[in-house]
Design brief:
Length: about 325
């Protein structure tokens, strides 16, 4: 009767916090007794929950055991069908992988296209925490139109293929090199235009490491035996112009939310440097060191060892 009167005047508690308040209002216990009562209630609730979970587990196991024979029989009946279905599934999965990969690659050089390069560059900038510097470089075949017009498109295609191979060799295989920038896309070893390529080196400890890499590549192009493609190429050897941006990576938090804009900006800076190299016949490699400050690219500042690299570096 007393409980009914209390329930009528004060709703019964539904949570532990409400229970504690209810006890304080109606039972008038000492603080120690109140704590003991709540602890006892917690213990009872916990024990009941454990028993319920154990009962549920037993019920599930009993139910599963009842299906074991049926499952075994079905597995046996389907095993032959599964083998066939699995084979077909694997074939189509591999076909999709191959077609997807081909769609991301340039047919002449087998380098990934520029769209894929841009995606990979954005992902790197948004997630990578290793290394102190990364490098985005653009490469242009100097006077390529002359070779294409003079010797024909077949010779031009072979020049492009050879440059792509030399770039793969001189820029490490784990770095990103891509081919062909089009209206709707970007590229790992990648080709930007008919005669342009780009690459990403992701983990330099020091920006000065880019200079020997560019020198090796430029020298490999200059000293390559081009007569195997067209004897008259010895009269006007192939050369390349290179624009390189070295980015001091800094904090990942500074890059994560501007990765897309940052990737596009790095390519634009490298492109501008490449055109400076094209205009300067004495310095085929232009290098600039940048860092991210308040979301914007700026010249590197700091101690003497980390100031911006020279505007130009000749191989």
């Amino acid at each position: 009767m007393q409980a009914e009167r209390l329930a009528d005047s004060d709703p019964l508690p539904l949570t532990r916090h409400e229970l504690q308040a209810w006890i304080g209002r109606h039972l008038k216990l000492s603080p120690a007794d109140e704590v003991s009562l709540l602890a006892a209630v917690d213990m009872v609730i916990t024990r009941q929950e454990q028993l319920w979970q154990a009962s549920k587990g037993e019920a599930v196991r009993a139910l599963s055991a009842g299906f074991s024979d049926t499952v075994a029989r079905l597995k046996e009946e389907l095993s032959a069908k599964d083998a066939t279905v699995q084979s077909i599934s694997e074939y189509f999965e591999q076909l999709v992988v191959e077609l997807s990969d081909k769609a991301r690659r340039d047919a002449k050089t087998n380098l990934i296209n520029f769209a894929r390069f841009q995606q990979q560059l954005e992902a790197f900038l948004a997630t990578e925490q290793r290394g102190r510097w990364c490098v985005v470089g653009l490469v242009d075949i100097a006077d390529f139109k002359h070779y294409n017009d003079t010797f024909g498109h077949m010779v031009g295609d072979r020049i492009i293929e050879t440059i792509a191979q030399l770039l793969r060799v001189q820029v490490r295989s784990q770095d990103l090199v891509a081919k062909e920038r089009t209206e709707d896309g970007h590229g790992l070893h990648a080709r930007l235009g008919g005669d342009e390529f780009c690459f990403l080196i992701s983990d330099l400890a020091d920006f000065r490491q880019i200079h020997p890499i560019c020198r090796r590549f430029h020298s490999a192009v200059r000293t390559h035996d081009w007569s195997g493609i067209e004897p008259r190429l010895t009269e006007r050897p192939i050369r390349v112009d290179i624009g390189v941006v070295c980015l001091r990576l800094g904090s990942l938090a500074d890059r994560r939310f501007v990765a897309r804009r940052l990737a596009a900006s790095l390519v634009e800076h490298a492109d501008a440097l490449m055109y400076q190299a094209k205009a300067d016949r004495q310095r085929p490699v232009y290098v600039r060191c940048l860092e991210l400050v308040d979301g914007e690219l700026s010249e590197v500042t700091g101690n003497d060892d980390e100031r911006a690299a020279p505007d130009a570096a000749a191989p």
